[in-house]
Amino acid sequence: MQLSGITVLGFLATAAFATHNPGQSCSGSGYDCSNDFRSIVVCNGAQWVTAAACPSACCAWPAGTLAPFCSC
């Protein structure tokens, strides 16, 4: 199967902006920035919960880093 550049860019854009709200359902485990980028959220196996608050909407997770962090 061959992917076009547009398909890959579309996937990356979706992955880059796929954030979560505390209380939203999830399964398994993971972490991410919240939708408003004011906190780092973790999946506890059932729902996303706030793990850390970031002032001024500064949660970041650049490519190549292992976990999100507050960048302010």
UniProtKB/TrEMBL annotation:
Range of residues in the leader sequence: 1-18
Record keywords: Signal
Domain of life, per lineage: Eukaryota
Protein name (Swiss-Prot/TrEMBL): Carbohydrate-binding module family 19 domain-containing protein
